[in-house]
Design brief:
Elements: H1 2-20, E1 47-57, E2 66-76, E3 81-92, E4 95-110, E5 113-129, E6 147-162, E7 166-173, E8 179-180, E9 191-192, E10 196-203, E11 205-206, E12 211-222, E13 228-237, E14 241-248, E15 252-260, E16 265-274, E17 285-295
Antiparallel strand pairs: 1-2, 1-17, 2-3, 3-4, 4-5, 5-6, 6-7, 7-10, 8-9, 10-12, 11-12, 12-13, 13-14, 14-15, 15-16, 16-17
């Protein structure tokens, strides 16, 4: 019982901190869907792809984090463009955040690969039900009460280069770097959308005709937080099955499996074994995604570069 009460308090504190400083979700499956953290990757292939994802903490305590994602991307090959949509719902304790963005990317051939630029823009709405907070003092004037919501515009950008041997990219999210207060607390900044930055790179190493080894690294920085590194490695078998693992500093060790159910239907499952302080209260995180893709024919008499791509 005491263990549950402690975790409830931890979750509540996280919710309050979320109101004071928004930080992006740490996705484990970005290895297979780089559009999650870099808008320039959108529409990189000859595939039109729609995906749904769910990420949740394994715990029997009410209010643990749950994230649902819908994304869609498609190339306009004759124009060298990519279009995408991303909707993310993130719930934790008393907070419920809904972010909806549209993405446009531009791709040009460079050497044996493709250089891409991306721009993402939309809105972020965060609502807070402070009456559901776990309060030690019943009527604490330092804590808000009732339901509040904050709507903020959002814009992000990225650049990405890939060829048959390697990829490298960088992105910057929440470029507006906004600070807002909830209506009844207009003298205090209750919501801060800090800028976050991602840098990533990886290699494609052919172990045999049907097996590819893909080591990579991701660096993430959010203002006011320590820099985080994610080292990952994936083995892809005949473009139909993949196994992967990663280590996220100060957070988790991750195992992943990707299966091509059919040519058009893919499923990915990952499990985060927590090594952070939350490991005493949670068994880890599940992340599962289902993607459906339609392969598009290249336009006639036009060279289209699609280096190493797995949706």
């Amino acid at each position: 019982m005491l263990r549950k009460q402690i975790l409830s308090i931890v979750i509540t504190l996280v919710a309050i901190l979320d109101a004071a400083g928004q930080q992006d979700i740490s996705f484990s499956q970005y290895v297979f869907d780089k559009m999650l953290i870099n808008p320039a990757y959108t529409g990189s292939s000859k595939w039109l792809v729609g995906s749904i994802k769910n990420r949740s903490m394994i715990s029997d305590i009410e209010g643990t984090p749950i994230t649902n994602i819908f994304s869609f991307q498609a190339p306009l090959q004759t124009k060298g463009l990519g279009l995408g949509v991303k909707v993310i719902q993130d719930k934790i304790a008393v907070t419920n955040t809904l972010a909806a963005t549209g993405i446009i990317s531009y791709h040009i051939g460079l050497g044996k690969g493709k250089l891409s630029f991306g721009l993402e823009g939309g809105v972020n709405n965060s609502s807070y039900n402070y009456d559901q907070l776990v309060r030690i003092i019943g009527d604490d004037p330092a804590l808000p009460s009732g339901k509040q919501s904050v709507l903020m515009p959002d814009i992000s950008a990225g650049v990405f280069y890939q060829n048959p041997i390697f990829y490298v990219g960088g992105s910057a999210y929440h470029l507006f770097n906004q600070k807002k207060s909830v209506p009844s607390y207009d003298q205090n900044e209750m919501y801060v959308m800090e800028q976050s930055y991602y840098g990533m790179g990886g290699l494609f190493i052919d172990l045999s005709k049907n097996i590819v080894f893909e080591p990579g690294v991701l660096v993430k920085y959010v203002a006011g937080s320590p820099m985080q590194f994610d080292v990952n490695a994936t083995v892809v078998f005949v473009d139909k099955f993949a196994l992967g693992a990663s280590y996220r500093t100060g957070d988790a060790i991750v195992g992943m499996v990707k299966i091509d159910i059919t040519k058009n239907l893919k499923a990915v499952y990952s499990y985060d074994y927590l090594i952070s302080e939350l490991s005493s209260f949670s068994k880890g995180n599940h992340e599962i995604s289902i993607s459906y893709g339609i392969e598009l024919l290249p336009p006639p008499a036009k060279k289209v570069i699609h280096p190493r791509y797995y949706f």
